[in-house]
């Protein structure tokens, strides 16, 4: 990417967000902004999106009372809380990411784009994009750091089975941030016929807004579901934060209700006092990454640092600009959970509720006692189970010293 230019249009969350991208991309970002505005006002678009979310993704996902998990959290926190789980792990492809991909593919088709590109770290967004492309019959190319291609062989195989072409990116640290830079480069070159599906609430405007709107179905459903069972709004919502899309998706419907506290949980890796973590909001500084101003992990010279987490999906040195805004305004609170804590959270959910969740989601589960301790007795919590754990069995077995 060329040196960041000043942001050229709105799309800001306070001082965060904007468009720090090469001028070549501005017309496409404008086109995407206009296409989204037109689509969201068009009932045929929302009907088709709703139909795909129901028939293909499997929505609405359940919101279920977690009795045995609540009992353990009560024991540990001393607070009599009731915890409900929003089950995004039950979505087709195993996580919330498909909600966004389906919506962006519908938009791409509306804009007449005939080629789809995406970046992926762990491969989850790549698999979701490749699935959606197969469904829409569009060619799909995925950029992935060469190191991640090595580490995530199973997801590379999945993407190829789904018909996608996977490019291994060897630049820099050959991980997610390099894959995202390469995808942006491809987009600059092929912008006329190509749509770039960004996988989280990150990137230049309108992506943070667009992805939030496409994930906001999580919170809309959860809000209606909790009112149905509890007859009131929850006291708190809890979700893990990588780029921040499952968290924004859950939070958005509750942001206007000040009585609903919002907790985002980042990955503390080996600990936020070490150099090996992905706790961007807890330990980062304000900078520019992937076309937006937000908190980032960087060194004293402003060079982006590598992030570390046991869960590849949280391993991102940036965070969506709206989270930076929610943090600065105090509307949301951000905590960090270590790798070890996440494993304990994973085991707790498995043991108490019979759910093997993604290691990303396990960060949110692990933070529940700490969140509960800040709430009154009788509080109602919603925790987002962003994905299922099948993909993490190899990592977990290795950590637990088990040979499969
Ligand atoms: C990708 C992923 C995440 C992190 O992404 P967000 O944009 O922060 O939601 C969390 N959970 C799962 C299961 C994922 O696959």
Helical fraction equals 40-55%
What hetero molecules are bound to the protein chains?
pyridoxal-5'-phosphate
Number of strands: 14
Helix count equals 17
pLDDT averaged residue by residue: 95
Question: Taking Cα atoms only, what radius of gyration do you get, to the nearest Å?
Answer: 20 Å
Rough shape?
A: globular
Lateral arrangement of strands in the main beta sheet:
3-4-14-9-10-13
Instruction: Give the CA-CA distance, first to last residue.
Output: 43 Å
Query: What share of the residues does DSSP label as strand, in percent?
Result: 15-25%
Structural class computed from helices and strand pairing:
alpha/beta
Low-confidence parts? 1-8
User: Main beta sheet, described?
Assistant: 6 strands, mixed
Can you offer a commentary on this structure?
The chain has helices spanning 26-40, 43-57, 67-77, 97-110, 124-136, 146-151, 153-161, 176-190, 207-215, 217-230, 245-251, 280-283, 321-328, 339-353, 359-366, 368-372, 393-399; strands spanning 12-13, 16-17, 63-65, 82-87, 115-120, 140-145, 165-169, 194-196, 236-240, 261-269, 285-289, 292-296, 332-338, 380-385. The chain has 404 residues and is α/β, with parallel strands linked by helices. It has a 6-stranded mixed sheet with strand order 3-4-14-9-10-13, with helices on both faces. Strand 9 (236-240), helix 11 and strand 10 form a beta-alpha-beta unit. Mean pLDDT is 95; it is low at 1-8. It binds pyridoxal-5'-phosphate. The site of pyridoxal-5'-phosphate has 19 residues, from helix 11 and helix 15.
